[in-house]
Fold:
Amino acid sequence: MTPTWVQLAYLACAVCFILALKGLAGPRTARSGNLLGAAAAVVACVIPFLYLELDHVPLILVAIAVGTAIGAVGARRVQMTQMPQMVALFNGVGGGAAALVALLELEHMVGVTDTLGVDPYNWFVYAATAFTIVVGAVSFAGSAVTFAKLQDLMSSRPVVFRGLPVAFAAALLAAVVWSVLTVTSAALWIGVVLAVLGLAIGVLLVLPVGGADVPIVISLLNAFTGLTVAAGGYVLGNTVLLVAGTLVGAAGTFLTLLMARAMGRSVANILFGALKGGSTLGAGEASDRPVRSAGPEDVAILLGYAAKVIIVPGYGLAVAQAQHTLRELVEVLGARGTAVDYAIHPVAGRMPGHMNVLLAEAQVPYEQLKEMDDINGEFKQTDVVLVVGANDVVNPAAKTTPAAPIYGMPILDADEARQIVFLKRSMRPGFAGIENELLFDPKTTLLFGDAKDSLGKLLAAVKAL
Amino acid sequence: MSEPIVWLTIFVLSVFVGIEVIAKVSSTLHTPLMSGANAIHGVILLGAIIVTGTSDHWFAVTIGLLAVVLAAINMVGGFVVTDRMLQMFSVKRPAARPASRPDEGAGER
Structure:
């Protein structure tokens, strides 16, 4: 029986996790909320050492030190632009850990009988164990695939092959059947087969998801891991795992729905849309249709004599590390009397809110950042929209082409401005893999080149006006 | 294992708390919130410590230690990376923090 003080300590940790999550939902309290969560997690992990007579303590401490070092160094070194794949990675290893814990617990349960020779575990414990193994493995493998997509280790476009839906359904069915088997006759090898099925489901689930939708899947897998941790808490009889896991599972599911709504998509469409095939696959090739391009001097004239300019920053800007040059350009334009605003799409960057993080890192004044709903009415009165490294968030196909994968996503109405200037590296389509009709609009001018390089030239040309 | 109904009760109530707690979050904070929630489920480290400390077969201990390493990466990395993101919102410019914005402007997406 767990001592009362331990149960109370776990309760206190669970309350701290609730407060931490609550804190993270508001900008003013987010940082302290995160620190509170970290403190509660550390306390929770110290408790077992105090009341249980654990074996292998030195080895466990070494393993904790190794994991801490890898996690801390990874988290410190990662570029802000690579944040989404880092979150996916951390989530995946968490899911993997939960699956391994459940496997071991299954092994502990095998052959255990009480004094009357009866198996002391009820079927629900076995079911929860099976659930933890399968979903933990799904989260691990799915996160690995999202990481590969975001890190450009594989194509970020939907990967669909003939028979994928059948394979997915078969793996899912097999996992259900096998889980029932686990409930009726627990054995380690059955658990291992379950884990393998979970890995297969994870891969098959994420392969058909295309570029811009990957972050939403990360959020979904995050919720999955939360639920596995909750189920693991039930299996181990540990309340803090149950509460923390459930909190993350519920909050993560809800967050996934919020993010999907911000993109005007349903979660089902995100996960299974590409399976229907056809146009949702998008284009991976550069187009050879004619466009109008210009040199930095021409664009400088456009900008330098405009009364109102809106800048649409995108992931390409962040990748080129051109935020500082852009800020300088905005200052010079401001000094010439031009009104300049930044228009921030909710899903600019690689995740909702990612662009705010990236621009905050570059010290762009927060007052100049305008959210989509606040600025969309202003495009009609805007002389020039300068799109730097963004594509999908200004793509009118979201409004006009029902077959487009981004159809229904609210966009920035850049097409309503008098002039549109795109700074682009090439004609390759954006993250969602679809062509942007706006590029071929007669009002549009393209300035090809690396964003930092182009902005530098633009800055010099505006100064020379 | 105590009463399944007790556990079910805690589970269901936690679901409601989880949803309620983030009901109105601004899209600006979606990324850090996801990352912070991610770090919290790293508390599976606790479970990994317990199963490893109560295993005796060398193979089980090895699997357990692997789980400990993975869970520690999840937990420590998650909290550190979230803190780094949130730092971005508060450095050097107290007046420009999102916190200084009235709620209607920052939220609702």
